[in-house]
Amino acid sequence: MNGVETAPGTSLAETFRRLIAATGPISIAQFMAEANAHYYSRRDPLGTDGDFVTAPEISQMFGELVGLWLADMWVRAGRPARPRYVELGPGRGTLARDALRAMAQHGLAPEVHFVEGSDVLRGLQIAAVPEARFHADLGQVPLDRPILLVANEFLDALPVRQLVRTAAGWREVTVDIAEDGSFALAAGDRPMDAAVPEARRGAEEGTLIETCPAATATLFEVAGRLARHGGAALFIDYGHAAPRTGSTLQAVRAHRKVEPLAEPGEADLTAHVDFAILADVARSREARWLGTAEQGAWLRALGIDARAEVLARVAPDRAGDILAARDRLVAPDQMGRLFKVMGLAAPGWPDGAGFAR
Ligand code: SAH
């Protein structure tokens, strides 16, 4: 992740202010890309002392069930030789560590490749999974063998582009500086009608369309690799299974939602993932879309309740915590419904467990 040059002691907000004063408003996509590059390069954002908690940090059951799903796919695909485990944005490496342990129990010991932009997080990942090899970009992971790929809360951090229908036609949503010096959203000057799919161009004034070109590009690449070299993939994130309109950009700092433009580089900026579009992209590359399930239903289908009971029996003093963690992952009013799991596989690979279609 290469951010804009920020002189030592200068905040990203100041850098943005100067840039906008000199060259005019910047797109939301540029704002989000630079803000997150800055954000992730400087800290470990995960955990109770950080800004947010992710599923693998809640319980080992999450990574274990992801590992089991991958092992099951691999076994039923006929145990192809020397697959690669590839994870995008592995955070602290917790998911990979738990998944690799579960895979090993089924005779699966893949070569491990991490795609990670942050040096701080790479340090934690190497401690969790010492054999991991690192890449700044998926394009650098060697081709030629089946991949077992996982991305949890990775796509939501990629920059979104927003287009809004104004009285004068479609415009890009940009970030400008308001009179009081704060950042403010503004419709750009340039007509952007050509960037809007024809079927949606006639939408009423005020309609906002959000797209994530980097997520689309990621799916294009992953699906192409699956189709050519075999394998299976899981994308897990909060988002929607059917297309929508409206902005979903949000910022979180210290477990609280904050104003997305207020503190660039100091809060985690995310947007909902549009799984419907991503499934279309995968299919257009001849990969199999296995389904997009709610996280709660998927984890239950994979046996999280039985796993929680076993863990609680082994450590009775922790039983309450284990069951509470299970609830956090699956309950509809917690992560169970908002988070989705999308499964993909190579043509000729089997259906995936947990995806009722
Ligand atoms: N998957 C982990 C971490 C989620 S946070 C978990 O579930 O706990 C997002 C992760 O994606 C971090 O590791 C962050 O550094 C990485 N990341 C975000 N944008 C990236 C980019 N453009 N390129 C590479 N890694 C990125």
Structural account:
With 357 residues, the chain is of the alpha/beta class. The chain has a domain at 55-156 and 217-345: Rossmann fold, CATH 3.40.50. Helices cover 35% and strands 24% of the residues. It is built from eleven helices and 16 strands. The protein has helices at 12-23, 28-41, 55-58, 60-76, 94-104, 119-128, 213-229, 275-284, 295-301, 304-314, 319-330; strands at 26-27, 84-88, 111-115, 133-135, 147-152, 161-166, 169-177, 183-191, 208-211, 231-240, 250-253, 256-258, 268-270, 273-274, 288-294, 339-345. The strands form three sheets. Strands 2, 3, 4, 5, 10, 14, 15 and 16 form an eight-stranded mixed sheet that branches. Strands 1, 6, 7, 8 and 9 form a five-stranded antiparallel sheet that branches. It has a three-stranded antiparallel sheet with strand order 12-11-13. The chain is globular and about 60 Å long. The model has no long low-confidence stretch (mean pLDDT 95).
Key traits:
357 residues; alpha/beta; Rossmann fold; 8-stranded mixed beta sheet; 5-stranded antiparallel beta sheet; globular; binds S-adenosyl-L-homocysteine
Offer a concise description of the structure.
The protein is α/β, with parallel strands linked by helices and 357 residues long. The chain has a domain at 55-156 and 217-345: Rossmann fold, CATH 3.40.50.
